[in-house]
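User: Predict the full complex structure for these chains.
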Amino acid sequence: MSTDAVAGFDPALSEELILRLPQARALGLKIASFGGGRAEIHMPFAEHLVGDPKTGVIHGGAVSTLMDTCGGASVMAHPLVEGHTATISLRIDYLRAATPGQGITARAECHHVTRSVAFVRAVALDEDETRPVAMATGTFTVPQLRESDAEGAA
Amino acid sequence: MSLRKPEPVQVVKQRRDLALRALAEGVPYVNFLGITFDRRGDELTGVLNFDEKLIGNPDLPALHGGVTAAFLEVTSIITLSWMSLWDEVESGRLDLASLEQGRLPRLPKTIDFAIDYLRPGLPRDAYARARVTRSGRRYASVHAEAWQDNRDRPIVQAVGHFLMPSEER
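Assistant: Here is the predicted structure of the two-chain assembly.
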């Protein structure tokens, strides 16, 4: 896969990236931005994502899928990383229940890469962007690094 | 002194399976992923029934990592709820009819969940068990793992902390 989308945001290419993933399609995920080691992905609210019918709050599992997808996308949006990545680990803190009826947006940043590992932090927001719903940190595989050396050699 | 006659086995089974089904099927997201539960006594095994939409990487193909993580989180929450529900089911305090109508007990809330991806998930069913390593009045710690063909080769494991629902129901 070529990653020319790094500098600017190519919606067609990034939509394709998402639409190739059946689970991302099933969740209705939409890439809002992609490039420079950052990605933003939106997940619309849907009744079938509810985890507690009493409260109507989206299940944490759906939020983890969104965070995982967005984290992986931020790695692929990193200028030094080439090819597909896989999650090594992901840790999520659920800060509060998402507001019922509202979609969730994840923003992820790949803030450091070594020859083998990419480090990511991410945040999940509903319409009240001042109070995050969840925060995550994750590590991802680096299949191939572009010529110039990244520091470190994990 | 006379011993109480034990209940017929099918009555016991029916009651337990009814309660479990109501608990799991009452959660829309559990149905969306196609997760069901097998029960042996009080032990639960989550089953992630394979479906094309669970695929994350169509090239391999492999289950989406988010899905296997969600599978472990669902299994953890249902296992925790099931443990607290068990006594009520067995003592007959729980009204099964109202449970069936979707009046579920309040569910534990995830505080944090840390997932360790061990192997790609193959495009077929996966199984999971959660072990409650500590269960307090307010907080519970759970370790969960999922596997496919071989129990000794888990595809993903996780530890999580959960906030238990307060007593009043």
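Residues 74 and 86 of chain B are 18 Å apart (CA to CA).
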